[in-house]
Design a protein that fits this description.
Order of helices and strands: EHEHHEHHEHEHEEHEHEEEE
Shape: globular
Number of domains: 1
Largest sheet: 10 strands, mixed
CATH class: Alpha Beta
Number of helices: 9
Distance between the termini: 37 Å
Helix content: 25-40%
Number of strands: 12
CATH topology: Dihydrofolate Reductase, subunit A
Length: about 280
């Protein structure tokens, strides 16, 4: 199993007790102060992170890179809960968002990490949908998910999801209140939350000052843009620059061939918490 090369790391970062297999593969340790909300993306050289309506477009953007899948699994194995939006759910019609799903070769080591952190076998899955327009037959609901929605979304979903999934309305507004969603997850004991939601939700989280860290894989792929093909950037539907932008501090740089693995600490500007429609 080849390792990821460490190029730079800020001193004094938290470190979990990783199993040796994971430490060697990652090129060092990984850990987080808690509570923490961490986002993970892969993007092309020209800034594309998603290409709807293609299914699992992130795998195309990442060139199906082995190390990118490993980092995704490593972050999941650390997390208490994974947050996605309805767009991410549609784009991954068979995914269950388990810790070892992207990288099953290290399933035993990921399980050991979760045991050391006294966490359940897999992180909780949280689905954000303001409208409630999700496919009840998605296998993630049969396995069990927490659906955070609105009053209207809750009415639409009532009686349609498998019994292992739970629906919670966060209010009458047409969009999910992201600040209220985070407060609810914290109240349920989820201290380390991983966002795998798309650029619309990520933009809302950034605008609300709710994101602590960003893991960004830069893939040596140029995706391009065409008038008849949707190509989404890291942040959509939120003008952060008008408010001064979200400042980022580089925490680490790793490399596997032409792929760069960047970790940033993000500022929390403390602006009013907007709602966002996942």
């Amino acid at each position: 199993m080849s390792g990821i090369e460490l190029l730079h790391e800020a001193p004094g970062l938290p470190a979990f007790e990783l199993p040796d297999e994971l430490r060697e593969r990652y090129g060092g340790s990984l850990g987080f102060d808690e509570p923490r909300l961490v986002a993970n993306f892969v993007g092309s050289l020209d800034g594309v992170v998603a290409a709807p309506p293609l299914v699992q477009s992130a795998r195309l953007i990442s060139a199906d890179n082995d190390s990118d899948r490993f980092v995704m699994s490593l972050l999941r194995a650390c997390a208490d809960a994974i947050v996605i939006g309805s767009g991410t759910l549609r784009a991954s019609p068979r995914s269950l968002w388990t810790a070892d799903g992207p990288y099953p070769a290290a399933a035993g080591a990921f399980a050991e990490l979760r045991r050391r952190r006294r966490r359940p076998e897999n992180p909780a899955l949280v689905v954000l949908t303001g409208s409630g327009l999700v496919d009840p037959a998605h296998p993630a609901f049969a396995r069990g998910a927490l659906v955070l929605t609105t009053d209207g979304g809750a009415v639409r979903l009532e009686g349609r999801l498998p019994g292992r999934s739970e629906i919670v309305s966060l209010g009458a507004a047409p969009a999910v209140d992201l600040g209220a969603a985070l407060r609810l997850l914290r109240a349920r004991g989820h201290r380390l939350i991983l966002s795998e939601a798309g650029p619309h939700v990520f933009g809302g989280l950034l605008a609300a000052g709710l994101v602590d860290e960003l893991f960004l894989t830069v893939s040596p792929v140029v995706a391009g843009r065409a008038e008849d093909a949707a190509r989404l950037g890291l942040v959509e539907a939120h003008d952060l620059l008008a408010g001064g932008g979200a400042a980022a501090r580089l925490l680490s740089v790793r490399r596997d061939g032409g792929h760069l693995f960047l970790r940033y600490g993000l500022s929390r500007p403390g602006r009013a918490e907007p709602s966002a429609e996942p």
